[in-house]
Amino acid sequence: MNLDAQHPLATGLTADSRLIRAYQGTRPDKTPVWFMRQAGRSLPEYRSLRVGTRMLDACLEPEMASEITLQPVRRHNVDAGILFSDIVIPLKLVGVDVEIVAGMGPVLGKAVRTKKDVAELTALDPSVLDTTLAPIRAAVARTVAELGSTPLIGFAGAPFTLAAYLVEGGPSKDHIHARTLMHADPDAWAELMAWTAEVTGRFLRAQVLAGASAAQLFDSWAGALSLDDYTRFVAPASTAAIAHVRDLTYDEVPAGTDAADAASVRRNVPVVHFGVGTGELLKEMHNVGADVVGVDYRVPLDEANRRLGGLVPVQGNIDPALLAAPWPVLEAHVLDVLERGRTAPAHVLNLGHGVPPMTDPNVLTRLVSFVHEVTAATPAA
Ligand code: CP3
């Protein structure tokens, strides 16, 4: 389906941005940079705005969600905004009892452990999202109106990461109940994953239709899985989730041609797939229908590129721990990441996971200008 004519990709506003060009596999004038969790507790302006408002309430208040999304873009000169929201928002909006506990993460009123629990959960109708996602659409619309030519990234949790919270009932280190369920009751597991894929897929699609120029699926906890379990029990649902945005296209008129020539190129909305500790799964995570693979800090980008067959744009992978190291140490690491990233068809610089809350925001600002400067000076061969 073609995006609305007013969508920033369709109007051309964001279609030629560094981020979108890199996601399409070409190398723009400078390497684009954004940070996972660029919005949030590292910013004093975020902390003061959030006083008195609970996390999930802030996500559902379009004016606040939009303002929080814009804060890091104004401050750091990053090449993209990412919607301030959370992966559990669509669960909450279909009626799941979930809250976010500060310093912990999502906590469920009741863990989903048995076939009966799965049946109760999946009785919740995903089509209510058509109306309950209205505040998210409003937040996206407000944000893209402010962002202009800077693309907004929409995101969602991958089915496994969401199912891990649902089955565990909260954060977990080893996700043992989720991993037990997939083997102990594969039918209940498949039903849970299919439902979760639909809920999270609709959340992602709503953001793109409302104006986001790219989509990122976070499978933060997929690193807990063996390649075999990932392929059998998880990849089909991730494919289904991504399918909710895979059909979205826009027509681009190549620079220098007249729109009336009708020599336009049909393009799809780029999809990024990211996980933590997923070095063994990179190829499969690409195969579920992603255009770009996000790499955590454990696998160097040249090795990630090799595992991906040398054809896939990569995103990553500054070690967040080094943000607090002396600048020369961080600088050397950034140069190393950029150099390894040059082996891939295209590279978007990011962290290997989210910005730690105690990060000095001035370090992030400096990092963005350093990457822009140094990559402008040394264009790829
Ligand atoms: O990247 C961004 O700037 C966009 C915002 C964003 C948030 N959550 C806001 C948030 C994104 C992309 C997410 C995704 C998310 N949420 C993931 C996948 C990415 C990842 O980090 O692996 C996961 C696993 C969650 C679940 C979740 N929500 C966790 C683990 C936490 C942290 C809990 C804590 O206090 O440490 C949250 C809450 C949350 N989501 C915060 C933010 C800014 C912190 C809320 C606060 O200010 O107290």
TrEMBL record:
SUPFAM superfamilies registered for this protein in UniProt: UROD/MetE-like (SSF51726)
Q: Give the catalytic activity.
A: uroporphyrinogen III + 4 H(+) = coproporphyrinogen III + 4 CO2
Answer yes or no on keyword Lyase: yes
UniProt cross-references to Pfam families, sorted A to Z: URO-D
What Gene3D superfamilies would the database entry show?
3.20.20.210
Q: Which InterPro entries does the record associate with it?
A: UROD/MetE-like_sf (IPR038071), Uroporphyrinogen_deCO2ase_HemE (IPR006361), Uroporphyrinogen_deCOase (IPR000257)
Q: What is its EC number?
A: 4.1.1.37
Q: List the keywords (alphabetical).
A: Cytoplasm, Decarboxylase, Lyase, Porphyrin biosynthesis
Q: Name one GO biological process term.
A: protoporphyrinogen IX biosynthetic process
**Could you say which residues are annotated as the site Transition state stabilizer?**
D86
Q: Where in the cell is it found?
A: Cytoplasm
Q: Which HAMAP family match?
A: URO_D (MF_00218)
Q: Subunit composition?
A: Homodimer.
Question: Per its record, how is this protein called by name?
Answer: Uroporphyrinogen decarboxylase
Q: What is the lineage of its organism?
A: Bacteria, Bacillati, Actinomycetota, Actinomycetes, Micrococcales
Report which gene this protein is encoded by: hemE
